[in-house]
Amino acid sequence: MKLARNIIIALIAGVIVGLALNLFAPNVFGPVDTYLFGPLGTIFLNLMKMLVVPVVFVAIALGTAGIGDPKKLGRIGGKTLGFFLITTAVAIVIALTLALVLKPGAAGDFDTAGISYEAQEAPPVMDTLLGIIPTNPIAAMADGNMLQLIFFSALVGFGIAMLGKKVERVKEVLEQANDLIMYLITFIMKFAPYGAFGLIASAVGSQGFDAISAMGMYMGVVLGALLIHTLVIYGGAVSLLGKRNPIWFFKNFFPAQVVAFSTASSAATLPVSMKMAQERLKVPESISSFTQSLGATINMDGTAIMQGAAVVFIAQAYGIDLSMGALLTVVLTAVLASIGTAAVPGAGLIMLAMVLTSVGLPVEGIALVLGVDRLLDMVRTAVNITGDAAAAVVVSQSEGVLGEPDGDGVPAETETA
Ligand code: ASP
Q: Membrane spanning segments where (predicted)?
């Protein structure tokens, strides 16, 4: 908790410094950003990213070896994917509803005539899913291709479970490697406050605040939907299905959320979010590694919320009505788009092009939301990884393997029962 407190202090300091430079000394901001904020942020991001491939390989191989039984593996996989898909669809519905009621795009006069946006080619979702089997696992690791890495690691773990005693030593090496990586995560996290300071000062300092005031309504819709989804859907799932006090859940997972917020990358946050779930939420390593690595890659409710809200906002700004059928298409394509979104900063916006195209909206509309996306990205990334942790708690509880919480983790009614 001391670490989380230090990161928060660093974030607040970063906001103040970034804001002050933006408002009072915009000329100074450039060099300070280049030589101080930027490097601090990059060092921290790179340190975290450095551990992602080793942590996923070791944790998933060990996790799968721990579960062993293919039937059980399939059951856990099914529950995990079910939770991911349902919560993502619900997230989009919340965002669409809020945007349709509050009409953020009708609020101001948005100049849609002169804008342009160079849409990048979104990777076809089907290709991503079918490309899950790596022809070269080393290349998959080198490229950081998460789905391929997960597939290969799970297969290695499966082999270890099947061969048992014969490969005992391989398992032992992986276990020790896991201890080593966990130590390195703790060590690197000492640098987190400095990194967080640099990242937030850079993000806040480079924002144009005119953009923010015009986009206040849109930001309000996205943030409101993120908040509702987190509190009601994740809080509800943790309480009803996970049988844990949601306040305990949020409190203990908070350090990971702060890191996600400052890095805006689910992938870079993965080592910390797994550590928090295992050590504090008492999710067994096998389920945490599987559910959270997969979730960081394909389960992005925060991103889906932004996409849903942005579609309605852009339609309203262009004065285009969305039919019921179009809204349904948005739900479907935004689920797919959020699955296909890479777990790195800004990726959700690239995939937004796919959702807009699916209902015939102009892709240039993305230019309208571009200016404020960096800040929203930070918040939605924190939501993205919270969904993965909630899934890990719920799936562990349903398998009867969720560990006993320290202190106040049991909901009041269960405690007195
Ligand atoms: N930055 C987000 C993440 O890493 C993805 C996005 O852009 O929405 O989870």
A: 7-25, 45-68, 80-102, 146-164, 180-205, 217-241, 322-343, 349-370
Q: Which residue's CA is minimally distant from atom 1 of ligand 1?
A: 345
| Beta carbon of 380 within 6 Å of any ligand 1 atom | yes
| pLDDT score, position 121 | 66
The reply to whether 365 falls in a domain is yes
pTM of the model: 0.87
pLDDT-derived band at 354 (thresholds 50, 70, 90) equals: confident
Backbone angles phi, psi at 281, to 5 degrees: -85, -5
Distance from the CA of 88 to the center of ligand 1, in angstroms? 14
pLDDT at 118 over 80: no
Domain count, the chain: 1
Q: Which domain holds residue 183?
A: 2-406
Q: How far apart are CA 131 and CA 162, in angstroms?
A: 26
C-beta of 307 in contact with ligand 1 (< 6 A): no
CATH number at residue 348: 1.10.3860.10
| Packing angle, helices 266-279 and 366-398, rounded to 10 | 20
Burial of 241 (0-12, 13-18, 19+ CB in 10 A): middle
Q: What is the spatial distance between Cα 17 and Cα 320, in angstroms, rounded to a whole number?
A: 41
Can you give the pLDDT at residue 120? 66
Q: Is residue 149 part of a domain?
A: yes
For residues 107 and 51, give the distance between their C-alpha atoms in angstroms, rounded to a whole number: 45
Span 146-180, pLDDT tens digits: 889 989 999 999 999 999 899 999 999 999 998 99
Question: From atom 2 of ligand 1, which residue's Cα is the shortest distance away?
Answer: 381
Q: Please indicate, yes or no, if residue 413 is contained in any of the structural domains.
A: no
Calculate what percentage of the chain has a pLDDT beyond 90.
Answer: 56
- Structure tokens of 377? 């990205």
